[in-house]
Design goal:
- By secondary structure, this protein is α+β, with helices and mostly antiparallel strands.
- The chain folds into three domains: 176 residues, Orthogonal Bundle (Triger factor/SurA peptide-binding fold), CATH 1.10.4030; 133 residues, Chitinase A, domain 3; 100 residues, Chitinase A, domain 3 (Roll).
- The protein contains 16 helices and 13 strands.
- α1 packs across α2 and α3 packs across α5.
Length: 466
């Protein structure tokens, strides 16, 4: 339902004041970058979390954990300062920050046993704990946005990719797992409109049950097919209205807190929306129930029979698979490509954009929709599956036949076969080199003081010491 997903942060996210693990020690400022102090307690909490994270990844760092934690925090604070100076805004993340702050504080209250116990532990009232937590999360996301902004400014040319490949140690190239190239023909059952009407009627029934006094969140848990929110009673993190697709955003903008919308249709299905509150001017805190059209066995059978007949025509070579896809497939993306499946629909769903240069036709098994993968592993190259009920990228039901075009064996990444993977490696290296130059430049122009208990040789970047 969201137009795009926030990119998951790669580093460990630590909020020391909300971890519930901070020891009551004699605190002091042990470093300053710009006007931002770093407290000893922050470094202790961060070093513990880094250690726990490494342990969960079966990794052992050879660095002093306190020095590693301090360097990470110094870098985060410098990035956040620059984000503010360069007007790298966090407006689109305001809802996520508010929700995470609330969750972290609640976790700390639960760990302490009560609000009073937490206040005694932190030696400050709850409203200050909440504000500190929000500020720490804002700092983390501000730093992450700044680094993403810097990375987005870096591009690589084909010549740079070629030079990168020619000079890289071959042992550093990744092993590309076995990949599948496959084509599909998809068909929606004939009774699509009837199935849509059943979904609308179901939501109207649920809406009436809410009006009659049943709890929206309980109905969402029982009936919503949006797995990400259903487990939370349909609740979503506060977000700007623009974060949602058109019809959903329009309906949301007309609601007052506590109101429930009528049935809203989007490309993802049919929704009921309940506005909980507006924590800020353009932030909407809501619940929703998602219902998708579903089909009876008889409705499915007629479509499966059609594809069974069509696959017979293809096997008798009266039509090629590509010709049959162009004439009969309901999937607009693959039908124009001879039925061959690409990653473009998935890219658009999760980013809102489709970059033709990022098109892939090879997929490792884990990245193929489960019902498709179950069919493909039974096929030899060139074979066509029997018809089956599958799903598209929006998880909508449809009948399919798939053809296994090619199996690409596992191999060391090669420029002729794996250009996009090697291009990504070349880009990542150039981004990191650009970032380190930028970081060193900013360190040199910014006030930095570090307690003498830390030594330059304990840091990955000794330029922090002046």
């Amino acid at each position: 339902m969201i137009k795009r997903l926030f990119v998951a942060v790669a580093a460990v996210f630590v909020v020391a004041s909300a971890s519930g693990q901070q020891q009551m020690i004699a605190d002091k400022v042990i470093a300053v970058v710009g006007n931002q102090p770093v407290l000893y307690s922050e470094v202790v909490a961060h070093s513990r979390t880094l250690t726990e994270h490494y342990r969960s990844q079966n990794f052992t760092s050879d660095r002093d954990p306190m020095a590693e934690a301090l360097e990470s925090l110094l870098e985060q604070k410098l990035l956040f300062i620059r984000a503010q100076l360069d007007s790298i805004g966090l407006e689109n993340l305001a809802g996520r920050i508010a929700a995470m702050a609330e969750d972290n504080v609640q976790a700390a209250v639960d760990a302490a046993g009560s609000i009073k116990a937490l206040e005694n532990e932190r030696h400050k009232p709850l409203f200050e704990i909440k504000e500190d937590t929000r500020s720490e999360i804002e700092e983390y996301f501000g730093a992450d946005q700044m680094r993403s902004h810097l990375a987005g400014q870096v591009k690589v040319t084909p010549g740079e990719v070629d030079r990168f490949y020619r000079h890289i140690d071959r042992d550093s190239l990744p092993i590309i797992p076995e990949q599948y190239v496959y084509a599909q023909i998809t068909k929606l059952p004939d009774n699509v409109e009837l199935a849509k009407q059943r979904a609308r009627d179901r939501l109207l029934e649920l809406r009436q049950r809410v009006i009659d006094g049943e709890r929206f969140d309980r109905l969402a848990i029982m009936y919503s097919v949006d797995g990400g929110s259903a487990i939370r009673g349909g609740e979503m993190d506060p977000a700007p209205k623009e974060q949602f697709v058109g019809a959903f955003a329009d309906a949301l903008g007309k609601l007052q807190p506590g109101q429930v919308s009528g049935v809203v249709e989007t490309e993802y299905g049919f929704h009921l929306i309940q506005l909980l509150d507006k924590p800020a001017e353009n932030l909407y805190h809501l619940r929703h129930i998602l219902i998708k059209p579903s089909y009876t066995i008889d409705e499915q059978a007629s479509t499966l029979d059609f594809l069974d007949s069509l696959s017979g025509v293809i096997r008798r070579e009266e039509l090629t698979f590509a010709e049959a896809a162009l004439r009969h497939s309901d999937d607009e993306a693959s039908r124009q490509n001879g039925g061959v499946v690409t990653n473009q629909a998935m890219l658009f769903r999760f980013t809102g954009n489709s970059d033709p240069s990022a098109t892939r036709t090879r997929f490792v098994r884990d990245n193929i929709e489960a019902t498709d993968a179950q069919q493909l592993i039974r096929l030899a190259e060139g074979e066509i599956s029997r018809p089956f009920m599958g799903r598209d990228v929006n998880m909508d039901e449809m009948a399919k036949i798939v053809k296994l075009v090619e199996i690409v064996p596992a191999h060391t990444a090669d420029l002729s076969q794996d250009w996009l993977d090697i291009e990504a490696m070349a880009l990542a290296r150039k981004q990191e080199e650009n970032y380190q130059r930028w970081l060193n430049e900013k360190i040199s122009t910014m006030y930095v003081r570090i307690d003498p208990m830390f030594r330059p040789e304990d840091f990955k970047n000794p330029k922090w010491f002046k």
